[in-house]
Amino acid sequence: MLYAIVKALLSGIIIMAVSEIAKRNPSLGALVVSLPLVSILAIIWLWNDTGDSERIAAHAEATFWYVLPTLPMFLVMPALLRGGTGFWLSLGLSCLLTFALYLATVWIAAKFGVRL
Fold first, then answer.
1. Cα 2–Cα 4–Cα 7 angle in degrees, nearest 5
2. pTM (two decimals)
3. Which of helix, strand or coil describes residue 16?
4. Could you report the per-residue pLDDT of 29-80, keeping only the tens digit for each?
5. Contact 89, 99 (CB under 8 A)
6. Distance between CA atoms of 90 and 81, rounded to whole angstroms?
7. With contact defined as beta carbons under 8 Å apart, do 95 and 73 qualify?
8. Residue 114 CA to chain centroid, in angstroms?
């Protein structure tokens, strides 16, 4: 149980730190967020929990494929906000777009033999 609490606290501290950095310097906050810190932590936790190299390899590869459909969100949301769309609607539309792109990614990847 202590291990799960440590994982949750460390993950929460990273999120809190990024939001504090972004309040002071949006570009630096974006740089820190773009680092694959959560993925690296997840890989470390997975290794500690399983020691299974194949599982980690599959996780890392799937992470690559799932990152791709998230990227348009970071262009669509600013465009919507700058175009006068409210924050919550911009966020919601961006999340819907990302979800649709996730589904498309899984479908297209399967056509090429990539199992996600």
1. 110
2. 0.76
3. helix
4. 888 888 888 889 889 999 999 999 999 999 999 999 999 999 999 999 999 9
5. no
6. 6
7. yes
8. 20
